[in-house]
Amino acid sequence: MNILITGASRGIGLATAKQLAAKGHSVGLFDIDTAELERAVNDKAFKKALKNKRIVQGHLDVTEPEAWDTAIEHMIDNFGSIDTLINNAGILVSGVLPTTDLDKQLSLIDINCKGVLIGCHKLAPYLADAKNGKIINISSASAIYGQSEIAPYSASKFFVRGLTEALNIEYAELGIKVIDVMPLWVKTDMTKDVSVTSIDRLGINLTVDDVAKTLCKLSGSANRKLSRTHYPIGMPAKVLQKLSQVAPDPVLRWVNSKVGAK
Fold it and tell me: Is 153 annotated in the active site?
């Protein structure tokens, strides 16, 4: 399979690329940080895939439609087709909203929302030609119920969740499966310096390899076997999702205030 990954220079994106390459897939790693991406691709994990010409890399600012066109063209020129898009690029800004930098929060919305939307728009014609064309968006357990101290981030993941649900229906007639994964906190560069109450209480128990394992499995699955739209990762995320399906709103608010509010 030919798989395009955004935000692939580090963290979940890079770990997923390594696992996919090890399984024999052709992978396009794209990121806005090309210097870091170059270092990442030189990792020994890609040695065999590079030798077999199953790896391409390139610059991609996910908020720029023209940059997506270039990345897609690079994939097609090298692999001939695209089977899966993993919309991984995203950023996090933590803190009580009025005390955070507004420009950083607006950039977060651009990357986490606009970037995912553009990718879903641009890749549709190519994925429709694939036997098992699919889009896997990186959502979050914070899209189950709004989280304090990361409110805009949480809201951006609600956007991803809503877009995923709608396109899962809309793109069905194109033969494209649209799903998302919903991990809780993951040990990455993005979270290492974050001070959030929910981390203090729940800890960070997932690694990038935990999430990559799920993404790798979903990427290689036939669309007919993907019966769900959302795939929570980790026990806390699974419990919170199940609870959200049966508990009334006051109960959900109380649980989330106990987990994430000071």
Answer: yes
